[in-house]
From TrEMBL:
Keyword Acetylation: yes
Subunit field text: Homotrimer.
GO molecular function: delta(3)-delta(2)-enoyl-CoA isomerase activity
Gene name as annotated: ECI1
GO cellular-component term (any): mitochondrial matrix
Compartment annotation: Mitochondrion matrix
Name by which UniProt lists this protein: Enoyl-CoA delta isomerase 1, mitochondrial
Function: Key enzyme of fatty acid beta-oxidation. Able to isomerize both 3-cis (3Z) and 3-trans (3E) double bonds into the 2-trans (2E) form in a range of enoyl-CoA species, with a preference for (3Z)-enoyl-CoAs over (3E)-enoyl-CoAs. The catalytic efficiency of this enzyme is not affected by the fatty acyl chain length.
Species annotation: Puma concolor (Mountain lion)
Main location: mitochondrion
Cross-referenced Pfam families: ECH_1
Record lineage: Eukaryota, Metazoa, Chordata, Craniata, Vertebrata
Enzyme class of the recorded protein, top EC level: isomerase
Similarity field: Belongs to the enoyl-CoA hydratase/isomerase family.
GO BP term, example: fatty acid beta-oxidation
InterPro entries in the record: ClpP/crotonase-like_dom_sf, Enoyl-CoA_hyd/isom_CS, Enoyl-CoA_hydra/iso
Length: 248
């Protein structure tokens, strides 16, 4: 039925490095241009981890030029996913904080494995950083304003039952059924004529995407100013050190 699977593979935690973001956009573009494909299942090849989100090492101790290049790549992936003409289904087979969660929120439907460790949410505030407005918009469009407001301020990571309750995911299923469920949901979405579904998706999503498109450069400048602050760099270093020390 013309369904591709994109499996994220950047061990150990599928962090969204510049290289991963770039490759993801290229793969998506190829699938968009190949008319034999109508749908994509986005999943992970790293056991227990869907994606650890944006790669913190790309946002810490690097040059301004690097931050700008990285942020443009983050914007590009979000825009491509959010406005994709393909049916995108996230088969979430692991934990998905921040950028990992965002990626799944751009999909048309989310199936999450029922494992209490597989938390998801936009936890940026816990790192001492702030989810950008378009991250916030994506969450609001999924779970509504009040739930998003509380989740964003507290940096909440929702376990599967809670994620389902607030509407962050559409289905929670046993871990060994995530892929088959994604496939059967895909069949249901592909039963709808493409042109009607695509125009409807565009109608729902374009106003949100346009807000970023209209101010992409300003958004990059804003990110540069924010991420270059000493206090923000310090927060990120402390957070990364904590992650590294966990093992020791
Ligand atoms: C007004 C606003 C204006 C502008 C906006 C400005 C700023 C906002 C910018 C960006 C928004 C940010 C979005 C993000 O996505 S930030 C990333 C958030 N991610 C997390 O908090 C997850 C962190 N990781 C974890 O919690 C765990 O690693 C995880 C549960 C995923 C897996 O645990 P596990 O025990 O299996 O592995 P670890 O031992 O913890 O990690 C292994 C290895 O990987 C490194 N690691 C983990 N996560 C990341 C990451 N996101 N980026 C880079 N590296 C990561 C970890 O340090 C370990 O490294 P090492 O010790 O060297 O092996």
């Amino acid at each position: 039925m013309g369904v591709a699977v994109i499996k994220l593979k950047n061990p150990p935690v599928n962090s969204l490095s510049l290289e991963v973001l770039t490759e993801f956009v290229i793969s998506l573009e190829k699938l968009e241009n190949d008319k034999t494909f109508r749908g994509v299942i986005v999943t992970s090849d790293c056991p227990g981890i869907f994606s650890a989100g944006l790669d913190l090492t790309e946002m810490c101790g690097k040059s301004q030029a690097h931050y700008a290049e990285y942020w443009r790549a983050v914007q590009e992936l979000w825009l491509r996913l959010y406005l994709s003409n393909l049916v995108l289904i996230a088969a979430i087979n692991g934990v998905s904080p921040a950028g990992g969660c965002l990626m799944s929120l751009t999909c048309d439907y989310r199936v999450l494995a029922d494992n209490p460790k597989y938390n998801m949410g936009l936890n940026e505030t816990l790192l001492g950083i702030v989810a950008p407005s378009w991250f916030k918009d994506t969450l609001v469009n999924t779970v509504g304003h009040r739930t998003a407001e509380r989740a964003l301020q507290l940096g909440l990571l929702f376990p599967p039952a809670e994620a389902l309750r607030v509407g962050m995911v559409d289905q929670v299923v046993p871990e060994d059924q995530v892929h088959s469920t994604a496939l059967s949901v895909m069949a249901q979405w592909l039963a709808v004529p493409d042109h009607a579904r695509q125009l409807t998706k565009n109608l729902m999503r374009k106003p949100t995407a346009d807000r970023l498109v209209k101010q992409r450069d300003a958004d990059i400048q804003y990110f540069l100013r924010f991420i270059s602050r000493d206090s923000i760099q310090k927060s990120l270093r402390v957070y990364l050190d904590k992650l590294r020390q966990k093992k020791g």
